[in-house]
Structures are given as structure tokens and as C-alpha cells.
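User: For my dataset I need records formatted as: sequence, then C-alpha cells, nothing else. Please produce one.
Assistant:
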Amino acid sequence: MAYQVMYRLVLYLLFFGFQIDSVTQGTWIASASASYPLQLVYFNSTAADGDEIHFSGFMGAGTYTLKLLAAQRTDNGIVKIYIDGDLVGTFDKYGSTDNNKIYTQASIVVAASGVKDIKMVVDGKHASSTNHYNHFISLSFYRTA
């Protein structure tokens, strides 16, 4: 009897704030706080529109889901995520009350395998937000196909 075995490779790429490769704009710091998962949060203390950081990591060709574990706050801005210059997610992180949230964007297609530049930038803010902060805990990409 012949058996066919199928394997599914699930790739997972995870970034924390201490893994920032470069800062294009702003001052980004870590802060310990029991109100956040892992009791640690990373944020732009400058709270300016356009504050930007970069990560890099290998991504195989395929389809991914992005998950941003972050704080939703009254003083957060709108955050955009790019892979090699292509916009893959936009998240309005304003909330009328402060809480932690997982922001998700599915069906991100990476056409070619290789080391990718992952950019996270604050780009504007909700009309009710009081500032342009970006409080986040982690940024991850799950390969789905």
C-alpha cells in the first residue's frame, strides 16, 4: 500500500521593539508596564506624524496574515505597515478607552522570497485622537499559503 504524505510548512516571523533595524524618524523607547502583554510596550516618545522604524527578516514567497499586538489608546495615531515599500496594512489605533488589541490584515502576498524591509510609520491620526503615538508590543507575519 502506498502512502502519500503531505507537509505544510507554516512560517512565522515575529518582531519586538528591541529588534528595530533602523529609525528613520522619531525616538522609539521601551517601557515596562503591567498593563501590557509581556509587561513591555514600545512607542515613539516624540509622538510626531511621520515617526518611522524598520525591521528586516526573511520571508518566503507566499500569502501571509499580519498581526499587530498593540495598545488602542486615546492618543494613538494611524499606523501603516509596508513590505519592501508596498503598503500591506493600515490601522487606526485610536480608541475612546485604553485597551490592548490585535490588529489583523490577511491575504498579504509576497511574490519573491528574500530578506524584506518591514516599515512601520505613523501617518496621521483619528479626528478624536489627541496625539500621534504608536504603542505596540509585537508585529508578526504568519504564512497561510
